[in-house]
Amino acid sequence: MTVEEHELLELAERLPEALAELESAVEEWSGRRFHGTADEGRVVATVDALGSLLDLEIHVLSRRRLDGASLGEAVVAAVGAAEEAAARAKDEMMHGLRLGSLPSLGELLGGARRDFERRSGFRA
Q1: Angle at 8 between CA 111 and CA 99, to 5 degrees
Q2: Do 74 and 56 form a contact (C-beta atoms < 8 A)?
Q3: In terms of DSSP bridges, do strands 43-48 and 33-38 run parallel, antiparallel, or are they unpaired?
Q4: Rounded Cα–Cα distance for residues 102 and 110 (Å)
Q5: Which residues of the chain have pLDDT under 70?
Q6: How far apart (Å, rounded) are the C-alpha atoms in residues 102 and 30?
Q7: Is 18 helix (H, G, I), strand (E, B) or coil?
Q8: Residue-wise over 50-67: b if at least 16 C-beta within 10 A, else e?
Q9: What is the pLDDT of residues 19-51, one digit of tens each?
Q10: Residues 78, 117: Cα–Cα separation, whole Å
Q11: Read out DSSP for 69-94?
C-alpha cells in the first residue's frame, strides 16, 4: 500500500467521527444569538446565526433624543453589527472544521466563493 493510499484509508476511517464533529459544531453555532449595538449601547439588535432579526431593544433615551432618521440609522447600525458578529462566528466555525491534514471547510469554501466572485463580478 502506498503512502497516499494509506492516508486515504485513514481519512475514510475518520470520516464518521469528522461528520459527527461537523454536525455538533453546526448545531452549536446555529443555536447561538448575536448582538450589535448603536447609540452608546442604547439600541441593541439580536440576530440568529443566519442573521435573522430576533429582537430589537431601543432605550427610552434614544427614542426621545434621536429624530426619526437618526433612530433609523442607529437601528440599521445595530442590526449590521449583529449580522457581522454572526458572520464572523460562522467563519471561525468553518475554519475550525477540517479532516486530517486537508484544508479546513472554510478554506475550501472561501476559495470557491472568491472564484465565483471573480468570475461573476458579484460579491457573495
Answers
A1: 45
A2: no
A3: antiparallel
A4: 14
A5: 3, 98-117, 120-124
A6: 24
A7: helix
A8: ebeeeeeebeeebeeebe
A9: 787 788 778 888 999 999 999 999 999 999 989
A10: 27
A11: HHHHHHHHHHHHHHHHHHHHHHHHHH
Place of cell 465565483: 116
Q: Are 59 and 42 in contact (CB under 8 A)?
A: yes
Phi then psi for residue 18, to 5 deg, are -65, -40
Residues making up the chain, counted from first to last: 124
Q: At 42, list the grid cell.
A: 442604547
Could you tell me which residues come within 8 angstroms of residue 49 by beta carbon, excluding any fewer than 6 positions away? 29, 30, 31, 32, 34, 86, 89, 90
The amino acid occupying position 63 is R
H or E segment to which residue 7 belongs = helix 3-30
pLDDT value at position 117?
65
